[in-house]
Amino acid sequence: MHDFTEAISYATAHEVAWPRDPHAEPARWGVHHDDPPPFNRLRGPVHARGGVSGVIRVGGREVAAWGEPDRADLTFSVAKTYLALLAGLALARGLIASADETVASRLPGIGFDDPHNRAITWAHLLEQVSEWQGTCFGMPDQVEHHRKVAHDPKPPTGRKGEARALQPPGSYWEYNDVRINQLSLALLHLFCRPLPDVFQEAVLGPIGGGADWRWVGYDDAWVEIDGRRMQSVPGGTHWGGGVSISARDQARIGRLLLSDGLHEGRQLLPADWVRRMREPCSIAPFYGWLTWLNREGQLFADASRASSFMIGAGGHYVWMEPEHDAVVVVRWLDSARAPGFVSRVTRALRAA
């Protein structure tokens, strides 16, 4: 029998310092404050959050839960991985031929046609090595130049938002939310349907989730496709909007990934695609397809080298741990305390 008491107590005692109501102390909430003006503002809705919450599943069964595991809270860049799942679904439905297909060859006229962007493939976007150049719903890619995130091992190369020379697609890794939003827009054009509807029908609904969840875009992120007005959704909550979802639903999605897209005998996502999401990028081995990897133990020394993570600002972690057939979700944890939490969960998993 697993005993996660110590890990849960540790997490609960180390809540992220962000205020629970983003409107009460806006200067202390979010990540947009680091952007150069006029882009250092929210462009989509945000809402109040709960406290530290989490869920642990082992062997597909929930063995622990704390906080408000059914509360739909903003989850920031965990949503990036959901875009990778939708891209896999697009492959399964024949909407793309392969991840190595160029976006321009499939979707002309949406920002991939110039000589630089024409070489960008779906895999480049999924690995964050696309070097896409342009403006997506008023946000230039330059806003995210020189962005430094916690688990990126390379040192800063300049001031955030300061222009840098672009490299050929596939040759430079950079965490860039504008490019992620451009990927989301491309997926919208592939499906010709709002991505939240596709995700609910093809992923969340079949695995038993979707209660109270939502995925919303920026106030001005609307396009018309086939005569229908649709909102394009971001792959996070950097500038507001994004996915609000419960810890239990996050654990369900993590389980689907751990099972290579198989749920109760149904192959909801291509198994090869899900496995490929966990393969390291050649120039950024800590990253797969919109998924963080632990191949050298650089993320968390006490997690297995086969483990992978969905990570979002504000202390959101979904940890897929194949060594113990476990999925661990923790939310609103002080990120500086994440290694301590992972260590305590690992000890509990090994002790059982």
Automatic annotation (TrEMBL):
**Keyword Hydrolase attributed:** yes
What UniProt keywords apply to this chain's record, in alphabetical order? Hydrolase
Pfam family example for this protein?
A: Beta-lactamase
* Entry keyword Metal-binding: no
Task: Tell me which residues make up the Beta-lactamase-related domain.
Answer: 48-330
Tell me the superkingdom of the source.
Bacteria
Q: What is the lineage of its organism?
A: Bacteria, Pseudomonadati, Pseudomonadota, Betaproteobacteria, Burkholderiales
Q: Look up and give the organism this protein is from.
A: Caenimonas sedimenti
Molecular function in Gene Ontology: hydrolase activity
The name of this protein is Serine hydrolase
